[in-house]
């Protein structure tokens, strides 16, 4: 049996939830509607495809939540996060209600489609809104666990699906999970960056922490890891470089520390097609580039 | 605190005069006064003693600027203590220049940014329908210039095509849109499958008749014409 993709897992888990929980509703703007045809036939009043209308999609999600339902709102990342961003800001949190917003097509998944289908600033944007939980799963099995855990609540949740995955799932509870311990520094790997980070740091004496839930940020977990190693922190995120740097700085406000942030470059629009691997290389997110950056960072501390 | 005060139409202007400090929006505030009064006095099924009743009608003030008339009606109908009105816009007040549902009792949506009320109202109707609640109405008040926002047209199209009879849009038309709508505002709604009426927005009888003329198979739009916004 082949492992489903994150998106396939999202469809399975959501379909199950629609079948078993009358509070769950799904709002679509054409994207993925072909994957929910059977669910829409069984639940015509809770599977709502509003057409290519992303503002209405998010607003409808807010209205559903105001009547007590648990809406899932889903589209490709730029269309569900960037285009209707004011709706995310005002139609959920400001109304005092939530939803599960599920994006697909992360930073450079749709590399051949170019800039219009990329939104590496998604987590940074959501991070500007108070109260949101942000899940960045690294494996389809984690998508299932995180989505199931989010369904009973009422709070705003962002679930970020990607084609880039780690070979194996890890635990998906809140906070940082220790994957490896070392003495020379702490490397934080978010979601699909874990496997590249483990390859990159195989020969380095560092602690590696993993999370699939980057907001709320586990400051205590980071502080504990820093106490056992050093306060040299490398943050490796699969979206805009430095998105969580302020969280690292806040967590270590009373500790002399250094932070190196790796992620999607923010200094220029990468105007290229090609493969996801080529985009990773351009952003310095292949294992060899991560290894070189971490090594250089740690060596500069020693000098 | 139990609020028992219920006033009449004649009390609204004195209640509004308790609020000061938002001169820029005063024209916008009085343009909605009669529509709001007719809705709360004769049309909506709402009860300040049961503000969270799931079967209540929902009134969504999408045109959130200039909410003095709204607050005055809520005070007259017992949702708000009239004594609160004098704090309008102050730091500790629950009543701001744009209403906040989390703060103010009887307020169904937080608004102020134009173009959010209709999609939210559409979602509310769909949420009620999914839960088998076919009686409550969702009434959204927008301004004619607010219809410039494209998000409204997304919702107008979907509600029309899906024939959502529980949804009503009231357009208070004070001719403040700089481009307007060819053939009039009602024409735009009927083209999308809505029932529509255009009435004198100061005439309570006309307003009541239009606002209660709902259809099971299509949403209702009521265009309430008032005097043009002062330039």
From TrEMBL, chain A:
Keywords attached to this entry: Transferase
Superkingdom: Bacteria
Annotated ranges, domain Transketolase-like pyrimidine-binding: 4-167
MF terms (GO), sorted A to Z: magnesium ion binding; transketolase activity
Pfam families assigned: Transket_pyr, Transketolase_C
Enzyme Commission code: 2.2.1.1
Class of this enzyme: transferase
Name of the protein: Transketolase
Lineage: Bacteria, Bacillati, Actinomycetota, Actinomycetes, Pseudonocardiales
TrEMBL record, chain B:
Pfam (any one): Transketolase_N
EC code(s) of this entry: 2.2.1.1
This protein's name: Transketolase
Xref: Gene3D superfamilies: 3.40.50.970
Entry keywords, A to Z: Transferase
MF terms (GO), sorted A to Z: magnesium ion binding; transketolase activity
The UniProt record lists the keyword DNA-binding: no
Coiled-coil blocks: none
InterPro entries for the chain: THDP-binding, Transketolase_N
Organism name: Saccharopolyspora hordei
Family annotation (PANTHER family): TRANSKETOLASE, TRANSKETOLASE N-TERMINAL SECTION-RELATED
Residues annotated as domain Transketolase N-terminal: 24-218
Entry keyword Transferase: yes
């Amino acid at each position: 049996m082949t492992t489903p993709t994150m998106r396939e897992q999202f469809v399975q888990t959501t379909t199950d939830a629609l079948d078993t929980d009358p509070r769950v509703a799904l709002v679509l703007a054409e994207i993925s509607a072909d994957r929910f045809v059977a669910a829409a036939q069984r639940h015509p009043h809770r599977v709502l495809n509003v057409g290519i209308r992303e503002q209405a999609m998010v607003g409808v999600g807010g209205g559903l939540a105001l009547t007590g339902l648990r809406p899932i709102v889903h589209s490709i990342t730029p269309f569900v996060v960037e285009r209707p961003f004011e709706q995310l800001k005002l139609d959920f949190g400001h109304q005092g209600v939530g939803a599960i917003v599920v994006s697909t097509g992360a930073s450079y998944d749709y590399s051949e489609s170019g800039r219009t289908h990329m939104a590496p600033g998604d987590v940074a944007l959501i991070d500007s809104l108070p109260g949101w939980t942000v899940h960045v799963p690294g494996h389809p099995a984690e998508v299932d666990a995180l989505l199931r855990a989010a369904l009973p609540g009422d709070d705003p949740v962002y679930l970020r699906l990607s084609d880039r995955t780690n070979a194996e799932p890890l635990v998906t509870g809140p906070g940082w999970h220790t994957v490896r311990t070392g003495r020379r520094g702490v490397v934080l790997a978010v979601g699909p960056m874990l496997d590249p980070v483990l390859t990159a740091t195989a020969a380095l004496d560092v602690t590696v922490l993993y999370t699939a839930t980057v907001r709320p940020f586990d400051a205590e977990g980071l502080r504990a890891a820093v106490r056992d190693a050093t306060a040299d922190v490398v943050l490796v995120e699969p979206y805009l470089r430095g998105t969580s740097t302020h969280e690292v700085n806040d967590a270590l406000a009373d500790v002399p520390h250094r932070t190196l942030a790796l992620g999607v470059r923010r200094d220029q629009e990468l105007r290229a097609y090609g493969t996801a691997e080529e985009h990773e290389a351009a952003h310095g997110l292949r294992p060899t580039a991560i290894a070189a950056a971490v090594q250089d960072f740690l060596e500069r501390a020693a000098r | 605190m139990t609020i028992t005060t219920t006033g009449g139409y004649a009390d609204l202007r004195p209640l509004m005069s308790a609020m000061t400090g938002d001169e820029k929006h005063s024209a916008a505030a009085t343009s909605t006064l009669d529509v709001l009064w007719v809705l709360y006095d004769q049309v909506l099924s709402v009860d300040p003693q049961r503000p969270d009743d799931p079967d209540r009608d929902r009134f969504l003030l999408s045109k959130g600027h200039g909410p003095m008339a709204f607050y005055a009606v809520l005070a007259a109908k017992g949702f708000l203590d009239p004594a609160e009105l004098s704090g309008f816009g102050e730091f500790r007040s629950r009543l701001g220049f744009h209403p906040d549902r989390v703060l103010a009792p009887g307020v169904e949506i937080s608004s102020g940014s134009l173009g959010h009320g209709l999609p939210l109202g559409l979602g509310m109707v769909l949420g009620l329908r999914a839960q088998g609640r076919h009686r409550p109405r969702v009434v959204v008040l927008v301004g004619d210039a607010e219809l410039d926002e494209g998000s409204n047209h997304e919702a107008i199209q979907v509600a029309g095509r899906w024939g959502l009879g529980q949804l009503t849009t009231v357009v208070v038309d004070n001719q403040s849109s700089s481009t307007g709508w060819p053939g009039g505002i009602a024409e735009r709604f009927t083209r999308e499958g809505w029932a529509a009426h255009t009435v004198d927005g100061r005439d309570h009888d006309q307003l009541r008749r239009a606002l209660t003329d709902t259809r099971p198979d299509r949403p209702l739009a009521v265009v309430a014409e008032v005097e043009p916004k002062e330039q």
